[in-house]
Amino acid sequence: MLDQIQRNAELVRSVARDHLDVEVDFDRAAVEWLDGYVTRQHEQGDPNNFNGLVSTLGSFFGACIVRTYGAEWFQNDNGWCVRFDEENAAYPFAKLEKHLRNGPEDSVLSMFDTIPLVFKNIGR
């Protein structure tokens, strides 16, 4: 599964570059772009088609968290998360799905930006 998550994250980068003419890396600027993209999908999309987006875009969002904040992918009883330490984790797939379904009030960018505030020992 971890290999699939990594392939999905790279797929988002290549689709953004090749089809949307946008260069993204795994950083805050990429999450800012992702935030706008997810909001547009929310506004235009069909909730019945969100499952594939959650898997693919959630992988990319998680990869941005991993690279920026030094987290690692981890599977627990609640599913796949990015773990900062034994007690602290974030769930990028769940957050991505909330943003898709609810719109910008569940922004992936706001979650990304609050990570160092919520998890005090996490630095940029």
Notable traits:
124 residues, Four Helix Bundle (Hemerythrin (Met), subunit A), single chain
How is the topology of this model organized?
Layout: H1 2-20, H2 28-44, H3 50-69, E1 72-76, E2 79-83, E3 89-90, H4 92-102, H5 108-118
Antiparallel strand pairs: 1-2, 2-3
Rg from alpha-carbon coordinates: 14 Å
What's the total helix number?
5
If you average the pLDDT, what whole number results? 93
Poorly predicted runs: none
According to DSSP, the number of beta strands is 3
What portion of residues is helical?
55-70%
**CA(first)-CA(last) distance:** 27 Å
Short summary:
This protein is mainly alpha-helical. It has helices at 2-20, 28-44, 50-69, 92-102, 108-118, and strands at residues 72-76, 79-83, 89-90.
Written description of the protein model:
- This protein is mainly alpha-helical and 124 residues long.
- It has a single domain, classed as Four Helix Bundle (Hemerythrin (Met), subunit A) (Up-down Bundle).
- Helices cover 63% and strands 10% of the residues.
- It is built from five helices and three strands, in the order αααβββαα.
- Strands 1-2-3 form a three-stranded antiparallel sheet, with helices on one face.
